[in-house]
Structure formats: C-alpha cells, structure tokens
Amino acid sequence: MQTSVKEHKTFGTDLEFEIDRKAIPSRWSVQIRPSMATQVISSYDFVNDESLDIDIAKIVDEVNKFAYASYIPIHIKLDEQNEVILSKGGEKKFDYFIEDKGLELSISTSKKESRIFYRNQIVSKTLFPCDFLSFQINILSGDAKTILTLNRDAIQTEYYQTLQQDVKNAALKVLSENNNRLDEELKKYASMYIELNTSEEQRKVMFGSVSLDDWKRLVVGENPSKLLEDILAYDSIIFKKDAYYSGEVQLKQSDDNTNTLEIIDNPHNSELLTFITHKFGNQKLRYYTIESEKGKVVYIELSKGNSEVIIDDWDIWFKQYLSLSHYSRNLMPCIDAYKALQIKENAVIWGCQDFTFSSIKQNYPKMVCPYIRVPKDGNMYWTNKLCESVSERLYQFVYDNRYDESVTMDQIKEAYQKFLNDTRSSVQELL
Fold it and tell me: Between these two residues, 314 and 357, which has the higher pLDDT value?
C-alpha cells in the first residue's frame, strides 16, 4: 500500500507483507453483504480453482473500509496484479462542517442508509435510524476512549444519546442555513424532519419566514399516487401493515363511498404513519381485523373526531400480546369501559410500552395489563402462556399513577374485575 499526493513527489508509508495460509481453508465465515469476500466465495470453482482466497479478500475488505472516507490516497497491489486505487484522496467526503459540534455531515433522504465515522474511519456496527432523513456523520472531536468501544467498530452506549442530540442540532443548523440550496426532493423530507423535531417557536427563530410546507408536495404511492397534502384531507385513514410487503406504499380508496383512504405498507417503514398521525393530532384510534386467505389481518384506523380508543378483536390482540418479548407485562390501550384504570404517560420504564399503536405519534389512554407472560410447562426457552396477575401491588401502582386523581381504590379494583370477566373468553386458550 502506498499513500501519495503527486506522482512526481511520493511520500507516505509502504506496507509489504506475505500471507502464509492454507490454500483451501477448512472452515470460514463471512457476513452476507456485498464485499470482496462474498465475491470470492460466489466465484469459487472447487474443480478448477487451486485456492479459496477468503482470508486475502477479508484483508482487502478491511482496507477498503479504511479507505472509504479517507482524505489520504490509498493504493493496494496483490502479487503481480495491477495496482488498485481504493481512495484517490483530496475530494470532499462530507458536505458540511459544524465546528461547534466537531462534526462533518452529509444529509440525504431516508431512502439512503445512515453511516457513522470517527475521524474518517467507519464505525460499522452502530446503526443510526432516523425518520425522513439519513446522515453521513463524521465525528472529529472527542476522545476515542469515551466514544468508541474497545474494538472501535461501535459507538459506546453512554455516548450514543449525546451523538443523537448533537446530530439533531447540527442538522437543524445546516437546514436553516442551506434550505434554499437543497434539492426539491430533499426539501420535502427535510420539512417533515423539521416539523417533528422543533416547536413552532424554534422554527420561527431558526427559519424566520421561510416556508416549511414542502412536505405537501411529496408524492405517496404509485398507481394510484397522491400528494401528502391530499391524503391529510381524508376524514379517516386505515393502515394495513403487511410484513411480507416490500414495494412502494399502496393507496386504496374505500369501497363504501366514505371519505376513507387505505394505506398498505411494510411495518418497518413507519415514517409516513408517524407524520400523518402527527398532523392529524389526537383523534380516534381503532384496532380491528379482517379475515383473509392467510388468516386475520390487523388494521389500524385513524379518524378525525373525538379522541378515543377502540379494540374490535381482543382474541387477536391477546395473541399478539403473548408474542412480545420485553418483560412479562406491558401496557395496553385503555378503552372507555375501563377508564378508571388509565395511568399517566411515562409511568413505567422503557420496554413496557404498548405495542398496539406503536407507530402512532400521539398520546392515547393506556392501562397496565392484568395478564403476564409465563413459561409454558415450566420451560423458559420455548413457548409462553398468559396468566392472570392482579394483586394489591398492582392496585397500588395504578392508584399511585392514576390519570384521574378522583378515581378511588375501589373503582380500580372493580374495573380490573370487569376487564378480566369481559376478556376471559378471548384469553382462555392462551392460559
């Protein structure tokens, strides 16, 4: 390998070494992603090829990762093959430098994957998911000991939250100073990011009189497609989350001539739902199912009108609850019939939250579920079953965290007994 600035004046470091290895390794492992190693494996012919050069390919992949965002030219040469330029050096790797945060940053729509670098070297094992935008983040300041794990391929948990806040502040600064220079597609996603990450007062200070309604022109779906602004004009929106669906968002007008739109999307793609529910505000939420060839399909309906929660299929709801893996008990929607059980927001630790409307960015009534998940037949590593779990400690917890402070302890106990009686048939086969 050799670093150089000009052909006539070479300097830097030459590393030359021989690799002593088995021609055909007895075993190997690689990550299934595009790389030199996977290319070597896919092109290996055990009849005609004398060696399987996975170890060499892995070295090339590591050097390539090192070269990805390097400002220094990096060349590599294997045996008598032609020299390959992995990094030309000199070209700009990131679009913006935010000095007060010690960050370099590039911003794209969420269709691109975010990446984190520490002083131009990729941090490969830390993801940076974000709605609407993706970032290429280059951390320039700070000590590696407090930022990176020991093997330098992940961000330390303690630093991650700091990084999130720094990137958010840096991104808002970049967007406020460069809004007019963004391309039209990026403006649409940036305007949604800004709306969900700032208050109205902050937007006035940072953006002044700049229009931030580019999101209205975002085209959603295909055959048919609609502007996001027109979607928000519907009285009711039904979301169907299909885990097997990977195409573009599908839109379907309701068959009953009501002002209702159905949106079909992958459950892992939640940013559209996030923004729509944000713009709708606190409205009516309904969980229901429809029978299909593959069984019952879950739908979530968001409607304008009075704020309330409706669960139309407790059987399926409890089956989904049983499949959860965070802790043995979770929160759940609190419908009007059991409103005495509603507790305050953030009354429990992270991981206990309700899954029912997890992508809905609005507050809705929640209660503590009186059923817990326990190992079936005492085998903790296989299937679970539900078990009723109400006690004086549960009653006291709900009483201490009750949403309506006029609710009495007796009302809480009565509401739980009513809930257990009403739902016992739905959970019978799961007990």
Answer: 314
Residues 342 and 215: their CA atoms lie apart, in Å, by: 35
Cα Rg of the chain, angstroms: 27
373-410 pLDDT, tens digit each: 988 876 656 678 999 999 999 999 999 999 999 999 99
In a domain? residue 212:
no
Pick the last residue of a domain from 70, 87, 104.
87
Q: What is the pLDDT of residues 321-340, one digit of tens each?
A: 998 877 899 999 999 999 99
CB within 8 A of 115, min separation 6: which ones? 122, 128, 135, 136, 137
Q: Which of 306, 217, 290, 295 is nearest to 252 (CA)?
A: 290
CB atoms within 10 A of CB 412: 21
The answer on 278 and 201 residing in a single domain is: no
Q: What is the pTM of this model?
A: 0.77
Range of the domain at 334: 318-431
The string of DSSP codes covering 153-214 is SSB-HHHHHHHHHHHHHHHHHHHHHHGGGS-HHHHHHHHHHHHHHS-HHHHHHHHTT----G
Residue 56 belongs to a domain: yes
DSSP tag of 400? H
Residue 113 lies in a domain: yes
Specify the number of domains making up the chain: 4
Using DSSP bridges, classify how beta strands 133-139 and 226-227 pair: parallel, antiparallel or unpaired.
Answer: unpaired
φ, ψ at 211 (rounded to 5°): -70, 130
Q: Is there a domain that residue 102 lies in?
A: yes
Q: Please, are residues 69 and 33 in contact by the beta-carbon 8 Å criterion?
A: no
Same domain assignment for residues 111 and 191? yes
With contact defined as beta carbons under 8 Å apart, do 120 and 87 qualify?
A: no
Do residues 248 and 294 both lie within one domain? yes
CB 412 within 8 A of CB 396: no
State the Cα–Cα distance between residues 260 and 281, nearest whole angstrom: 17
Based on the domain organization, do 200 and 101 belong to the same domain?
A: yes
Question: What type of residue sits at position 129?
Answer: P
In 90-149, DSSP assigns E strands to 96-98, 103-109, 115-118, 121-122, 133-139
Q: Which amino acid is at 410?
A: D
Q: Are residues 342 and 382 in the same domain?
A: yes
**pLDDT tens, residue by residue, 54-96:** 888 888 888 887 777 777 788 888 877 777 777 666 567 899 9
Q: Are strands 371-375 and 366-368 parallel, antiparallel or unpaired?
A: unpaired
